[in-house]
């Protein structure tokens, strides 16, 4: 049947094509394309966006799609029969939602790049657009992946592209080092992910997310294994429950690396060395979102493991608060945004761990819009400020760049979680789930809730400190006095995202449903469709949580919303009081040594470098010695026997023909004698 | 009819003369001649046994061997020419560059 889903691979291939075109241009070294190769990228992402929306429309009509496109390896070794490694496409409500987000943000970032990179006279643009194209293609490939191994491969490609793009200005000292750090830190997490992928194959014999009725995907198999209907191979002498937890935590390693969760978050603030549109793409829609999306994708697998869920919730909640506190003291615009990104992804992890599958995807959606908006807004400011990112050199930009200001303000209100902007609804739902599920006898979730709640005023404070320092008060430098004007290609994406950041919350007004009974939680209904094993109510059945309320459901909703909104407004008010003055001063200096601690990121980098130098390096050295001495030693000993005997025996090769003749004659004589003796007619 | 032992003894003597020449001479042409002697010793054996058994197959093989010997000489002479060109002599013990 030729349907719209036959075009699903094109969503991935279009940006890949734009990558190839831009790469060809970059390699030719000539100016073959207008705009440095931006046009194919814009066309490709626009095409992907249209296709994604078409997919979403088809999924809304109740259709889903899971097809293997290409099997590139099949088991032929004994014991691996039936094992197939494939590329496939999975189109269901979750992946179409993500496809629309990724393609939309990628398109806007491409357009924005016209203003940020082209108009600014950057060189090496084909290389830049090649990177963007490949980045988009890898992320889309990751989103539509229908099995864990394919997801892993595209996950790695995303990491590679982030390396290429963060290190775009490779002639300066900062970006290459930041790129290497991003690559290595995420790779450390991916190492566990890879082990986890192999473990999933070894345990279930398949890594399909959905599979078919006859051969279900691994989340369903895990569920059946716990119900005793399926025998999974477990290792290390663990029972299925404990082993699934181990596998889940292994895969979680990759998630923590990519989604920049504590303790592998250190790469993300450094990644701000990349061009600002790249930062928007990395932090809003692609790389960082990949981790959270992966957990959501295989949520059925995590849902059967309470321990893994608890770890996810705790790591997420802690990261939300931990990263937020560092954002308070930063001086650079993009640094504040970087820590807010870590913090917001912490919220999503908290939601996933707390059984709030919808809440997490909802926050992923709203965050993609408002964080892309904030980064592009920051890009606009940085452009106007001639690449000065220090907020203390800004001020008073409000009247000079109104489009940027109002869209940035919308994004900030969303980030701070102020009613009725998008971030309020999603963050509120996250806190709601962790509270109600936590009250039902889950102390870990309550702890996560406390972390999340404490992070709310912190978020509001640093967000509005940033807004007030940048846009309000008096201009503090000449650049801020007369900022460079930006064009439509900067303002356009900002306006689109500004609207989305304001209204995107409307897709899931869960509290309103509780209040009025009207079915306005569209995202919930959306994610409840598709494959029956991947629906929200199925997850709710298999996860270990139940809900408890303070009073009734209604009072809990209202109380939770009131508390988080109140805290957010407190943070906002404090920022207003301290920084919304003509000439603000660094109030954070009053924190004394605490400020140094925060400014130096709790010395996270220092201890990780210390670990690398003092622990990993000696261990690696010892391993190297063992390898050189024992493993290579044994091989070399064997070969030295051959070498020695060869060096002796080769001496009979004298080059004198007479000697050869003599040897042949001797050999013949010896042969005759042997035959004679054995034949019995000699001696 | 001459008994075959005589032929065999003759062939062995010729062969030994050939081997002796091969081991003691240094001139490449003499090498070639010694090899011819050894080949002909084998030929004598073939013909003698053929005669003894009353079967001409052996004699046919003798003819083949002669053709082979002719070919071998042609190649051998060629090799000796090249040897002379490269080393200005045909003493086989001097041409020792093909060694370890």
State the gist of this model.
With 683 residues, chain A is mostly helical. Chain A has helices at 8-28, 38-60, 93-118, 125-144, 148-166, 174-204, 218-226, 240-258, 267-270, 276-285, 287-297, 299-303, 306-327, 333-353, 357-384, 402-416, 422-439, 443-471, 478-481, 488-503, 510-516, 522-527, 536-542, 553-579, 593-599, 604-649, 657-679; strands at residues 65-74, 84-91.
Q: Give the strand line-up of the largest sheet of chain A.
A: 1-2
Helix content of chain B: over 70%
Spans of at least 5 consecutive residues with low confidence of chain A: none
Distance between termini of chain A? 91 Å
Question: How many strand units of chain B?
Answer: 0
- The DSSP helix count of chain A reads 27
Order of helices and strands of chain B: HHH
Secondary structural class of chain B? mainly alpha
**Beta-strand percentage range of chain B:** under 5%
Provide structural commentary:
The complex is a heterodimer of chains A (683) and B (100). Chain A has helices at 8-28, 38-60, 93-118, 125-144, 148-166, 174-204, 218-226, 240-258, 267-270, 276-285, 287-297, 299-303, 306-327, 333-353, 357-384, 402-416, 422-439, 443-471, 478-481, 488-503, 510-516, 522-527, 536-542, 553-579, 593-599, 604-649, 657-679, and strands at residues 65-74, 84-91. By secondary structure, chain A is mainly alpha-helical. In chain A, strands 1-2 form a two-stranded antiparallel ribbon. The N and C termini of chain A lie far apart (91 Å). The model of chain A has no long low-confidence stretch (mean pLDDT 84). Chain B is an all-alpha fold. Helix content of chain B is 78%, strand content 0%. Chain B contains three helices and no strands. Chain B has helices at residues 4-24, 28-53, 57-87. In chain B, helix 1 packs antiparallel against helix 2 (28-53) and helix 2 packs antiparallel against helix 3. Chain B is elongated and about 50 Å long. Chain B starts with a helix and ends in a 13-residue tail after the last helix. The chains are: A mainly alpha (683), B mainly alpha (100). Chains A and B meet through helix 27 of A and helix 1 of B.
């Amino acid at each position: 049947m030729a349907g719209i889903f036959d075009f699903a691979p094109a969503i991935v291939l279009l940006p890949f094509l734009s990558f190839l075109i831009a790469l060809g241009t970059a390699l030719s070294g000539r100016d073959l394309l207008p705009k440095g190769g931006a046009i194919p990228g814009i066309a490709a992402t626009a095409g992907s966006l249209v296709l994604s929306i078409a997919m979403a429309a088809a999924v809304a009509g109740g259709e889903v799609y899971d097809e293997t496109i290409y099997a590139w390896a099949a088991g032929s070794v004994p014991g691996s029969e039936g094992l197939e490694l494939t590329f496939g496409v999975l189109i269901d409500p979750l992946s179409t939602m993500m496809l629309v987000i990724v393609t939309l943000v990628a398109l806007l970032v491409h357009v924005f790049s016209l203003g940020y990179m082209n108009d600014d006279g950057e060189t090496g643009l084909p290389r830049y657009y090649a990177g963007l194209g490949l980045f988009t293609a890898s992320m889309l490939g990751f989103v539509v992946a229908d099995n864990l191994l394919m997801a892993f491969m595209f996950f790695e490609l995303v990491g590679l592209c982030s390396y290429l793009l963060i290190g775009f200005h490779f002639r300066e000292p900062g970006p290459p080092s930041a790129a290497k750090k991003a690559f290595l830190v995420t790779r450390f997490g991916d190492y566990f992910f890879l082990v986890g992928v192999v473990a999933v194959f070894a345990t279930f014999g398949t890594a399909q997310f959905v599979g078919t009725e006859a051969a279900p995907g691994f989340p369903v198999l895990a569920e059946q294994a716990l119900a005793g209907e399926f025998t999974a191979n477990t290792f290390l002498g663990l029972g299925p429950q404990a082993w699934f937890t181990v596998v889940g935590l292994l895969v979680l390693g990759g998630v923590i690396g990519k989604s920049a969760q504590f303790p592998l978050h250190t790469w993300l603030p450094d990644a701000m060395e990349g061009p600002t549109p790249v930062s928007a793409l990395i932090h809003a829609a692609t790389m960082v979102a990949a981790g959270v999306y992966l957990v959501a994708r295989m949520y059925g697998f995590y849902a059967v493991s309470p321990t893994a869920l608890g770890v996810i919730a705790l790591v997420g909640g802690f990261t939300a608060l931990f990263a937020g506190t560092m954002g308070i003291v930063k001086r650079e615009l993009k640094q504040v945004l970087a820590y807010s990104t870590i913090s917001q992804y912490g919220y999503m992890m908290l939601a996933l761990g707390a059984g709030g599958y919808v809440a997490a995807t909802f926050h992923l959606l709203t965050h993609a819009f408002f964080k892309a908006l904030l980064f592009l807004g920051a890009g606009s400011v940085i452009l106007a400020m001639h690449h000065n990112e220090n907020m203390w050199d800004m001020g008073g930009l409000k009247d000079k760049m109104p489009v940027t200001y109002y869209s940035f303000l919308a994004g900030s209100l969303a980030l701070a979680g102020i009613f009725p902007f998008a971030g309020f609804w999603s963050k509120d739902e996250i806190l709601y789930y962790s509270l109600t599920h936590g009250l039902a006898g889950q102390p870990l979730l309550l702890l996560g809730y406390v972390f999340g709640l404490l992070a709310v005023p912190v978020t509001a404070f640093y967000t509005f400190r940033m807004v007030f320092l940048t846009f309000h008060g008096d201009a503090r430098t000449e650049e801020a006095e007369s900022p460079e004007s930006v064009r439509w290609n900067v303002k356009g994406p900002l306006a689109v995202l500004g609207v989305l950041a304001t209204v995107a919350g409307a897709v899931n007004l869960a509290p309103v449903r509780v209040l009025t009974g009207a079915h306005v939680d569209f995202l919930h209904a959306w994610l409840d469709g598709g494959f029956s094993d991947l629906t929200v109510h199925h997850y709710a059945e298999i996860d270990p949580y139940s809900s408890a309320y303070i009073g009734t459901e209604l009072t809990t909703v209202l109380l939770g919303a009131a508390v988080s909104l109140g805290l957010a407004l407190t943070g906002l008010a404090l920022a207003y009081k301290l920084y919304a003055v003509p000439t603000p001063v660094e109030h954070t200096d009053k924190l004394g040594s605490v400020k140094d601690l925060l400014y130096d990121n709790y010395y996270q980098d220092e201890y990780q470098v210390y670990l690398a130098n003092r622990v990993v390096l000696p261990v690696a050295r010892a391993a190297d010695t063992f390898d050189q001495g024992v493993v290579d030693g044994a091989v070399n000993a064997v070969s030295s026997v051959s070498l020695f005997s060869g060096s002796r025996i080769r001496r009979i090769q004298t080059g004198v023909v007479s000697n050869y003749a003599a040897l042949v004659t001797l050999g013949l004589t010896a042969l005759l004698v042997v035959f004679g003796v054995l034949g019995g007619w000699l001696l | 009819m001459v008994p075959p032992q005589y032929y065999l003894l003759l062939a062995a003597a010729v062969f030994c003369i050939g081997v002796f020449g091969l081991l003691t001479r240094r001139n490449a042409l003499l090498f070639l001649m010694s090899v011819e002697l050894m080949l002909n010793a084998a030929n004598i054996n073939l013909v003698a046994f053929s005669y003894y058994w009353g079967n001409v197959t052996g004699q046919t093989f003798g003819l083949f061997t002669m053709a082979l010997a002719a070919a071998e000489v042609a190649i051998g002479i060629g090799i000796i020419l090249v040897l002379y060109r490269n080393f200005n002599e045909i003493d086989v013990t001097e041409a020792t560059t093909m060694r370890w």
